[in-house]
Design a protein that fits this description.
189 residues; binds guanosine-5'-triphosphate; alpha/beta; seven-stranded mixed sheet; binds magnesium ion; single chain; Rossmann fold
């Protein structure tokens, strides 16, 4: 699968006609600052398609990017970020849960991203639990592998596998693009 074109279509904060346009939607979810937006830039080979930031809480809407004029990559706000005010945080949490679990939004695929170095956070466990409980299909990606030396990656992977109970975790770096082919294959298989 080649990604030839990628363009921003719109950001939504609730129900919208884009949800019913019949196109496949592949959503990227995960803790704030885990690198969701950077990962979309890496997959699409565009440095600035999606705005990323070293400050958590950058993405505040559900943003749709049309790929190959055919389907969407969907960038969501992050969960679990403590430093934004309560009201705003609760709003974002509701928005994420609505997108993932409401009948109104039928997701075709979900990519759950965790931080390879940090490991599974309490919020990640909750999200995994909710996805499994709802029988939602997801792909698990561990991002930022460049932060761990090659010699220590196998151990770290084993730890993550036992924490998550998953065997097919894709190792990724949005910085070096390692794992890009693996993830594209998995998404489009
Ligand atoms: P929110 O929108 O706040 O939920 O964050 P996000 O998950 O979209 O994260 P974002 O892509 O904005 O990246 C957060 C920070 O992590 C930025 O400073 C990125 O440059 C950095 N980053 C993302 N991916 C990687 C990676 O694979 N390796 C390294 N070293 N840094 C990364
Ligand atoms: Mg973001």
């Amino acid at each position: 699968m080649e990604i030839k074109t990628a363009k921003f279509i719109k950001g939504i904060k609730g129900t919208d006609e884009i949800l019913n346009d019949g196109k496949i939607k592949i959503a990227f979810i995960g803790r704030s600052n885990v690198g969701k937006s950077s990962l979309i830039n890496s997959l699409t080979n565009k440095k600035n398609l999606v705005k990323s930031s070293s400050l958590p809480g950058k993405t505040r809407e559900i943003n749709f990017f049309l790929i190959n004029e055919d389907f969407y990559f969907v960038d969501l706000p992050g969960y679990g970020f403590a430093k934004i005010e309560n009201k705003q945080r609760e709003k974002l949490r509701k928005l994420i849960l609505w997108y993932l679990f409401s009948e109104e939004v039928l997701n075709d695929k979900i990519i759950l991203i965790i931080d390879f170095k940090v490991g599974l956070s309490k919020f990640d466990s909750e999200m995994l639990y909710l996805l499994r409980e709802s029988d939602i299909d997801y792909i698990l990606v561990a991002n930022k592998i460049d932060k761990i030396s090659k010699g220590n990656r196998l151990n770290q992977l084993k730890k993550l596998e036992s924490e998550t109970g998953e065997k097919n975790i894709i190792l990724y770096s949005s910085k070096t693009n390692e794992g890009r082919e693996d993830l594209l294959l998995k998404i489009f298989s």
